[in-house]
Amino acid sequence: MRRGRLGPVPSWWRDATAAAGWLVLLAVTALWVGGGGIRELGSLAGALTSTGRLTGLLASALLLLQVFLMARVPWVEQAWGQDELARTHRLVGLASSTLMLAHIALITLGYAAGSALGIWGTVVDLVVGYPGMLLAVAGTAALVMVVLTSVRRARRRLRYESWHLIHLYGYLGAGLALPHQLWTGTDFLSSQTATAFWWGLYAVCAGSVLAFRVALPLWRSLRAPLRVVDVRPEGPGVTTVTVGGAGVSRMPVRAGQFFQWRFLDGPGWTRAHPYSISAAPDGATLRLTVAHVGDGSSRLATLRPGTRVLVEGPYGRLHEGVRSRRKVLLMGSGIGIAPLRALLEDLDQAPGDVTVVHRVHSAQDAVLGDELTALAAARGARHLVVEGPRVPDRPSWLPEQARRLSDVDALRELVPDVAAHDVFICGTDGWMTAARTAAIGAGVPRDHIHLERFTY
């Protein structure tokens, strides 16, 4: 039973959400001006303090926007996709932390310039003598810890579970800063408009997290319980799991999207893992195909039918709703072919519209290869397997035996009219970057290239 097809994602959602973010920052600046921020720039102490207030206000707003970006609000998530949201989240976090440190330094110097206590005496006076400052110091420490562990080199040294637990301290940091802002922040209390704005901003962000990260997933999972229906090996180190239940028919899921999955099979069930569906939604079941790359994914092979399942989602823009051209190129590497297999099954297409390029190390590693061959034949798509070990000495999506070709030339050789395609890419992070670069070099506009990264 195939469900009704979902419509395209409105393009104006992205522009509207971006405009809303900039308007928040503009409003913060306007409130600072309205609160006398410019008038205080006449003296050294006033200039330092007033500029410090502005950097603190902008840091607070960006921190709240950072929380909102990852609240998984459906309209925002569909407008941007998890990949773009995560990248924007990091940039906003870097800007917020930089402004926060500037706020601390400028406020301290400004107070010290107008006091006989000196720098260190002013620091002690601020921390001990002002309401909420001890909590703010603790919140700042939590946020700095989150920032430091988000640096790429630090992330690579941490297990995903450890990094995720540390990252949750960002919520604690934002919460601990609130009393300081309300008790000593004159810009929060300078007018009813300012008070309503800041309380409203906190309420929207907190409400979004509670509604879309907690309430909605629990409601979807508990109102119509999902259970494991089938577990089967798909090849060496790969498992396919099928989940079913009445709740599946109520989920607005599209082929190519992913969920955060929790299987209630014992210790460790609280950790969610992102897995894409590997078959087009049929209204009755969801299927995922996963490579064993860690403890969480390896446990899937031991699941038993009947195991309860909790899900968050669906997420991601790797689906037909972002398609804007008739012709489509699906490029997948390794287990990244799983969501593209679902797309191949679901795409509205005529013979010749869709080309699948499946990059594998060897024929034995072609996950879902037989299914892809059968689906391509049934739907009139081209299915091309690019086989061989990777080129070792340059970033490339090609195998060693094709090293004589540039990435762009090879792509044009396989798909001569690639510039007229929408391109969907899924695979390892480096491979996707190389494939995306090749597609751009072959003339595909950037906004016609769609991919989803699962690196944290």
Annotation keywords:
alpha/beta; Elongation Factor Tu (Ef-tu), domain 3; 3 domains; 15 helices
Question: What does this 3D model show about the protein?
Answer:
By secondary structure, the chain is an alpha/beta fold. The strands form two sheets. Strands 4-3-6-1-2-5 form a six-stranded antiparallel beta sheet. A five-stranded parallel beta sheet has the order 9-8-7-10-11, sandwiched between helices. The chain folds into three domains: 12-219; 225-315, Translation factors (Elongation Factor Tu (Ef-tu), domain 3); 320-451, Rossmann fold (3-Layer(aba) Sandwich). Helix 1 (12-34) packs parallel to helix 3 (74-113). It has helices at 12-34, 44-69, 74-113, 118-129, 133-150, 152-157, 160-167, 169-184, 186-189, 192-223, 295-298, 337-346, 369-379, 407-414, 429-441, and strands at 226-235, 238-244, 258-263, 273-276, 285-291, 308-315, 327-333, 354-360, 382-387, 421-426, 449-451. Strand 1 and strand 2 (238-244) form a beta hairpin.
Quickly give the structural class: alpha/beta
Radius of gyration: 25 Å
Strands across the major sheet, in which order? 4-3-6-1-2-5
The fraction of residues in strands falls at 15-25%
Ends apart, CA distance between termini: 36 Å
Number of strands: 11
What is the chain-wise order of helices and strands?
HHHHHHHHHHEEEEEHEEHEHEHEHE
What characterizes the major β-sheet?
Answer: 6 strands, antiparallel
Number of domains: 3
What would the average pLDDT be, to the nearest integer?
Answer: 85
Determine the number of helices (DSSP H or I, runs of at least 4 residues): 15
Helix content: 40-55%
Low-confidence stretches: none
What gross morphology would you assign?
A: elongated
Pfam families: Ferric_reduct (PF01794), NAD_binding_1 (PF00175)
Cofactor: FAD
Protein name: Ferric reductase-like transmembrane domain-containing protein
Subcellular location: Membrane
